[in-house]
Automatic annotation (TrEMBL):
Keyword hit for Protein biosynthesis: no
Domain of life (superkingdom): Bacteria
Keywords: Cytochrome c-type biogenesis, Membrane, Transmembrane, Transmembrane helix
Biological classification of the source: Bacteria, Bacillati, Actinomycetota, Actinomycetes, Propionibacteriales
Name assigned to this protein: C-type cytochrome biogenesis protein CcsB
Pfam families: Cytochrom_C_asm
Amino acid sequence: MTDTAWESLSNQAIAAAGLLYFLALLAHLVEWASLRKVPLASGRASEDSIDIPGGVALATGPDDESEERVRRTALFGRLGYLVTCLAVAVHAVSLFSRGMAADPNRVPWGNMYEFTLTGTFVVAFLYVALYRKFRLAWMAPIVLAFVLTILMVAVIWLYAPVAPLTEALSSYWLVIHVVSAIIATGAFTLGGITSALYLVKARAVAGGAAAEHGYVARLPKPEVLDRTAYRLHAFGFPVWTFAVLITGPIWAHQAWSSYWNWDPKEVWAFITWVVYAAYLHARTTAGWKGRNAAILALVGVATLWFNFIGINYFSTTSQHSYAGTKQIQVVPDTSSRDF
């Protein structure tokens, strides 16, 4: 295949992935809309209840119609998850094709468009991979809406045609640095979503909201959400530390002959590290849990995504400007990438 054919395949694959994410989101929205009419089973699951993905037991009721409604709801949940898995696979094809479209072939993160495609892929992949371990069915609509929105932003505003890597990016340390940074970004993003849902659930519980119907009722207990958020952050933090404090400085020294340049992106990456270090330190030493920890986690994810995208638009001095879109002056052909 020619480079042009690979680039076209990448554009078509990301369009297909976007469509699949949208269909998966619709399936989960139908699922959760149907759940509003289905009460939760009290206590442990029994012969009069059905477990939907994520470990939530639904009462089937005394009549066949109620049982059929519950089974149909569970079917939409499974369908949404399977379509999400397919979307992640197609998303991976898009990234692979993007790398193959360059001459010479390279890793698919030479600009903000490619960074964003990779970041959303890791968020979706981690969701799929951790779905059963952490029973993440309750996270489905939020994750899919987030991934779909960021993909649309990438395609509409961040798109850049395939180009060779700049000299600073032509290093195997780039691969190690960016892979670890994006994995941590995915984990922190899922942790941030969980922390936000914890605040919603805790407020509903404190306010005596209805406990049997609606999306909030299907969320796990606040303490489960809090524990899940902690585990996700505890996984992401050492990976982020490796990216920011080890591989990043090594790559910077190789590219610019200095381990630290006070570049805005470096500074904000360190700020993000400090916030998450404070989050984990407060939990383990001061016993911070619940609301305070969730708010600090949201501050962390805000600094993370501002560094990921915002620095490229608001900073004119960053040596990481090659990761933005301003360097590309070619007007791309959009005929094959609309969705």
